[in-house]
Amino acid sequence: MKRPLIIIFLLFLIFSIFFYFSLGTEPKIVGEEVASPKGTNFNPILQKNASYVYVEGAGYVLKDRKVVLFVGQDTAQAQRADAIKSIEKELESYWKWQILIGKKDIEEITDEGQNDRIKTQRSYPEKNYPEKNIFRRILDVFKVADAINVVRDNSKTCDCDDALLLLAGKDLHLIQTTLNPDGGAVGNTLDDAKNGKDIARQEQMLKLPQKDTEVGGDGKEAPFLVGIIDSGLNFGNAIVSQNESFITPFVNSSLNYNFLKNNVDVRDTLEHGTKIARIILSNAGVRNVKFVGLKTFDTTKVSNLYDNLCAILYSIKHKVRVVNTSWGAFSEKPIPVFEEVLRRAKAANMVVVCSAGNTNVDIDLNPYYPACYADHPELGSHVITVTSIFNKQICQNYSSSGKKIDLTFDAINENCEHPIPDNLGGATAPTESGTSYAAPYVTAGVINYINGSSAGYSKSGYIGAIPTGSKIRPY
Which of 178, 220, 385, 407 is 20 to 30 A from 462, comparing alpha carbons? Predict the structure, then answer.
C-alpha cells in the first residue's frame, strides 16, 4: 500500500518541479526611458507619459509597447528570430503565472485580430475565475504560446544599423531581463586583434587620422562632418522665424534625417539645435565643416532612446567625426544598449560631446546619461561632458568626484547664460541658459583640435591643448 503512495508522490513531485521550472519568472516594470534637451528628470516625464518605460537589461521598452535591443555582431535573420523568440518566451512565462494563480484568462492575452483564431481552437464557458479549477488553468498555461506574438516593427526604421532592433508586440512593457547578457558585444575587439582575428579590419576601425584634412575621391578636401542630434537644423529654405542662410553652405543636406518621421525634413521650430550649430560654426576655425542635422526631438522637448541611438549609429555609418548631444536623462542604472552604441562610436573614432544637465545636482549621486559615460573605463576616451561655471562656481550639474565631468565653460552671468551668435555669425544676441549651450563651444574646440593635430584625436591631448585664458577650462 505504501509503495503506490510513494510512487504517486514521486510522480507528483517530478511533475511539480517540471511544471514550476516551465513557468519561468515574472517580469516587472522597473523604470522609464526618455531623453530631453532641457535635462528633464525621468519622473515628471513618466507622470505625463505613462507609456514611456525604461527596462533593465539589453531591451528597452518605448511608447506603444515597443522594445529596442541589440542582437550582437551577427545580424542574420536567424539571430533576429532568436531574439524575438526570447521575448516571446519571457512574455509567456509572465502569463503562465497570471493564469495559474487565477488572475488572468487566456483570452486576455489575445489581440483583436487573434481572438477568432484562438476561440476556434478551444471552446471556453463564460469567464468565471472562481469556478476554474487548477487543472483547467494548467491546460491554459501550456497553450499561452499560441497567443504571444512579437514582430519586428517595420513602420519605424532608418538607415542606421541592422543590429539595432525595434520590436512591436503585446505586453512588451513587462520585459526586464537581459536578452544579450554581454550587452551585444561588437566584433573585432582588441582581444580579437591580439588573437590574430581580422587584424587588418581592427586596425582600420581604430586607426587615428594622421593628416590635418582628408582628401575625397575627387581630390578635393573632404568635409569635416559634425552631427547635431537635437531638435533639428534651420538653413536655406527651412526658415522658421528668422534668416538662417549663413548656415546653408555648411550643411550636408544629403545626410540630414528626421528620425521622428523618417524623412529628410529637419526644420527646427524650437531652434535648440540651430542655436547649437551657430555656436559651433562661429567658434570652429575649420573651413570645411559640414553639419548633419539629425532631428530626434519634437516641440515637446522630449525624445526616446531608440531615435537617439539610431542617430548616433547613423552618424557612425556616414563617417561623422564629432556629434553634439545637448540632451540627456537621469537613470539609476547604466544603460547597456547605450553602452554598445558608444562602443561602436569609439571603434569608429567618433567623439561624442555631451551636456551635463541643468538641474544643479551631483551627477555622481544622480547619474545623468549619456554625460556619465565621461569616466567610463572603456568608453570615456570618446565622451566629453561639459557644464557651466560663473565666477569659479559651478552653476549647473556638477560632479563631486570630479570624474563625471571633463570641462566647464564660462557663463556670462549667475543665470548660467551663454551668448548665441546671430544669423550673421556674430555673437551679439541673444543669450540662453543651460549646459546645452556650453557643450557646443567645446564641440567647436574638439573640431579645431582634430583638424590641427597630426597625431589625431585623444581626449587627454585635447584637454591638455586648451590654451591658458580660454573660457573652456578643465573641470
Answer: 220
